[in-house]
């Protein structure tokens, strides 16, 4: 299809323009395909960490399907908040919402090894954190000064660094096999499936065009899936069994997992809401610049933040994970040049329909964990790259180098120390209350807090002799580190 057949340049820059349905429908589904795998992956990771995911042979198989189902359903609902709007909730822009990777390092410690019993505190935290996130919409414009690229870039980088270990564990065969000390963990059969996904994904991303390039991760996972079928790693009986066990239609259940107050969960979700809110502000600005060639208005930024929060809160009531705007769809708008919010509304309706059909979740659940590992290695690596990209906007003077160095050293150090501690063993934070220990072990929140505080209290220029000693004489050297 050509742009001229869809509409005039003025129409394509108008969020309220509805292209002809023959073009609007495939464009809307394209938005869903671009985010589909990334949207359901956090639910699979959380279920696996809790103990009813891949390789667990758990009797709680339906719960895995339910989490996947809710990921699709409430990504669609949250997207409708953005595109259709309800009062001040929503930006009336083509913003695609989906399950956020940013919260995974907070969620994994909350549910690790607890099975379904760990979900009550998790979803209570999602609900309260979502309401707090929505409240940020009233002040988002006034607190942006405390979250410059130095802080947000560091946080996104830390999120990516916390996630890359998950990708490798999945590609090698999954945490259950690792815990069992199985010889199958890290075998060629596991790695080959992950490598097929990575090779196909990179090949399409760099050498294909159009829809194939945009959906490279999705096609790569499909290729890995077929590879596992051909090699016998995925028996056909597993697919038919999962399909037959899943219902053809099911509605969400409010407070399905109960209600449990966990201060670690509430504090963690509320603090990470700042990160998600700033990410959404950036995505809104990217959409208006890339699609309409203008800056985002205060009303659009506030409405997008409200929709972010309320979408997350509603998801938490029914067993869905936190939602945020998806950056890959921002790039898709810039590429297609179609700014219509109605196109994204069509995609949202498609997501909701998928979420009401558990059989779709049943098929997704049969994806071998190694295949998913190949996909998330690419996706989580892109999170790290996104953080580095945000940090490229930082003026790397001596002051900012010191802030970054201290925050990264403490945050990453706590994270790695916690990862290396055996269950029940002593760690560096063992004398803290349980809530603070869980939050500190993530590494992300300590790093963000240190960066925010130091950025607010340190003078704009530090003494040269002090920073030269701290940086070992490297401050200000190199193309990317010069004072600007």
UniProtKB/TrEMBL annotation:
Domain of life here? Bacteria
Statement: the UniProt record of this protein carries the keyword rRNA-binding:
no
Q: Where are the transmembrane segments?
A: 32-52, 64-84, 91-112, 118-140, 147-168, 188-207, 214-237, 257-278, 343-361, 367-388, 400-418, 438-458
Localization per record: Membrane
The way this protein sits in the membrane is described as: Multi-pass membrane protein
Q: GO CC: one term?
A: plasma membrane
Read off the NCBIfam families from this record. Answer: ncs2
PANTHER family, A to Z: PURINE PERMEASE C1399.01C-RELATED
So what family is this one in?
Belongs to the nucleobase:cation symporter-2 (NCS2) (TC 2.A.40) family.
Task: Provide the protein name.
Answer: Purine permease
